[in-house]
């Protein structure tokens, strides 16, 4: 048992007994704040500015040519701590998409379960193709559990296009077309 | 090449530590034997192939005790210890055989530097494909680059362009840019598969792996080249882009394709099998298996899979079906058509059931053409098991003419058929209509359609058990994936049928260990000390003396020679010794 110490309470002074000084101090704060600029936002009519490195809903992005960047290496699925990501890998049909045949691999299905996602950003960090990004969406809702699982189409809708300048696969393709020096 | 048969040991010194190794062993194997996870990195060396020595990754420093050239006397240092004459340059471990007194350094600065250099050269033209490469996760180049490489590239020139997505054969796809020219696949095709189809064309960095003109990699062992490829150059067309290997769970199993009983590994994730690869067993299949054996798992998801216990086509509970089976069997006049595809445990149960209801047992042979390697003439995995359990005492016939005769004469009223379509075996559907059929099997066929009772059975991937292969080697397989929903394991349901036949109470959930206690007590061929759980991974050779007079169909193949087998097992006094030697 911790020792308790009983403190003598000081008797209130006359001014304190009238409560007036306290009321005045309180009103000073009230009126002072009233005249200042507001610190709250009228959400959802007003939206906060999201910092660049904010970790919101993970999305899939396309390259500047509007092509799928993800090659379904499944590293994000592997690294995901709550196992929110589920990928079904597949081959790119060379006949259907000849200009992308050299990439060989793309996800058939790509599901992120937003009920499981903890917004840690490890998927973005691990992605070797820079295809998955946690963007600025912070509020999401749905009426069913199924609605909260973002499929590939939804992920690309949310993600949009990333104007990067790597052109990794384009370089690969031009090297392939150029052939060897000898 | 059989390292095991060499008994003479010599002492060599590896990284300052004296170790005993068999004479003639190479440095890679010697270092592996030292244990403690020590390994000489290598690409082109494979324990079951000839030594090519072309990857230069297994460089080690080697030294021999110094002797005076003129007198042959040992040269001693100031402490009176013989001096070691270290070679000025490193040597490759795969082609260096251990000799007495040899000193090896696997971790010196020179060795590290040479590995680093080799890795850098290999990576010069290797594409940065890891995200889309199926080998990632089990790639030796990836592993050794992380372990021995420099971590960044100094190469600013353009990488070589080579053919990608080449179809080498019906099951193998080649990506030449990833190839590190180790020539394992070439040596395998030539030396093991006996079909020399692969070779290099062009020179220097332009060297390219390809099939000889007019040929393709279509032999039944082509997928072994994918297994031994240290990088992702050769990929399985079937497994390509299906799943990353780090998600897959590995389960030890046995191939059911033929009586060879190749040891396999089942790679599965969340109850779905993605591929089957061979598991090394020097006494059975080395490190190989057939392509056809790798495709067997596809039958799991076939549409005609039996998944419901039925009586006259009506869905019932397993208990109801088992009780109905007991009632039918108790009426007598039963014939049992067993299967050499059943596990040893199931065959033990069928033997018990046959004894308890006085059934006449017949088995059907499944013979085909052997290829002299890992596909034997007997296409059933456990014919020897049926002999060991006493289910049969003669080799099976191809047809069931005797049973057809018995049915027609009215001597048989009930047939318990295990995994065999009787209509294909000399019993036409008219004859079959005269009897009540209890069908136990994995897939639907014409017999299961007319069967009175249908008991669905699990496939080899879905249950625990054991098989006995062509050389009477008892081998264990484990559950890799769960069976179809609602289907109980075969031994559980067979216990529910066998126990009431002898007025016993069925064990509620029969564990395989408990069953094995019964089996070793009953079966003379199984040593008392044996248990399913304690079976070693490489299997146990059983005493085959009682069955040597039978003329088995297997001819000589990779690890089995009928003549030598008979000789080894005939001399009864030496039989255990021979078995032990084969074991070693």
UniProtKB/TrEMBL annotation, chain A:
Domain 4Fe-4S ferredoxin-type per the UniProt entry, residue ranges: 58-90, 108-137
The note describing how and how many cofactors are bound reads: Binds 2 [4Fe-4S] clusters per subunit.
**PROSITE patterns under this entry?**
4FE4S_FER_1 (PS00198), 4FE4S_FER_2 (PS51379)
Q: Which cofactor does it need?
A: [4Fe-4S] cluster
Q: Which InterPro entries match?
A: 4Fe4S_Fe-S-bd (IPR017896), 4Fe4S_Fe_S_CS (IPR017900), NADH_quinone_OxRdtase_chainI (IPR010226)
User: Which UniProt keywords are given for this protein, alphabetically ordered?
Assistant: 4Fe-4S, Cell membrane, Iron, Iron-sulfur, Membrane, Metal-binding, NAD, Quinone, Repeat, Translocase, Ubiquinone
Q: Which SUPFAM superfamilies does the entry link to?
A: 4Fe-4S ferredoxins
The UniProt catalytic activity note for this protein reads: a quinone + NADH + 5 H(+)(in) = a quinol + NAD(+) + 4 H(+)(out)
Binding, [4Fe-4S] cluster 2: 80, 117, 120, 123
Q: What is this protein called?
A: NADH-quinone oxidoreductase subunit I
| Species per Swiss-Prot/TrEMBL record | Thalassobacterium maritimum
The beginning of the lineage is: Bacteria, Pseudomonadati, Verrucomicrobiota, Opitutia, Puniceicoccales
